[in-house]
Amino acid sequence: MPALSNARALRVIGQDLETRGLKTFDIRRQRDRFEVHCGYQAPPAPTPVLLEYSAADIDELESRAQSNRRDATAPLDLLSLSQMLRSLGGYFDGKNINLVRISNVESAGAEARFKIEGETERGERLTDERSASAIYDMGVNMYKQRGRATERYARWRR
């Protein structure tokens, strides 16, 4: 089985959190497992719920979500939690950074803020904070790149 990408795993986890109505979260990755402390109130808030996701759990949740999808032409909401987490995961994947943690627990104010932590291949620890608008921009760039890659191979799909 190929390594679990951060973008895919975080999108699926985000979809599950949205389905459950969870708004506050602290996601930590340990190899191919994710531990999520979360809560129902908007941040800053306590996180009394603990969820764990293995690679198999993520595969199952993704498969279930695909079978429940009805409208493939629905507009993409890059500000949804699942797409914002996917964008952050894509950032980590693209920079070859190992995801350590993503959290919105300390976020306060009108615009959501995400604290992100990662580790480079050389063992350097990186910590940053990103606003929802910055993550939205990352998502737009990610989809533009996907569009260019799709256009490049369009002639072979006919």
Topology at a glance:
Layout: H1 6-20, E1 24-30, E2 33-39, E3 49-54, H2 55-68, H3 81-95, E4 98-103, E5 113-119, E6 125-131, H4 132-152
Antiparallel strand pairs: 1-2, 1-4, 2-3, 4-5, 5-6
Structure report:
Helices cover 41% and strands 25% of the residues. By secondary structure, the protein is α+β, with helices and mostly antiparallel strands. The chain has one domain. Strands 3-2-1-4-5-6 form a six-stranded antiparallel β-sheet. Helix 1 (6-20) packs across helix 2 and helix 3 packs across helix 4. The protein is globular, with a radius of gyration of 16 Å. The model is unreliable at 153-158 (pLDDT under 50).
Q: What is the string of helix and strand elements?
A: HEEEHHEEEH
Oligomer: single chain
Shape: globular
End-to-end separation in angstroms reads 30 Å
Please give the largest β-sheet: 6 strands, antiparallel
How many helices? 4
State the low-pLDDT regions, or none.
Answer: 153-158
β-sheet strand percentage: 25-35%
What is the total domain count?
1
Per DSSP E runs of 2 or more residues, the count of β-strands stands at 6
What is the residue-averaged pLDDT? 86
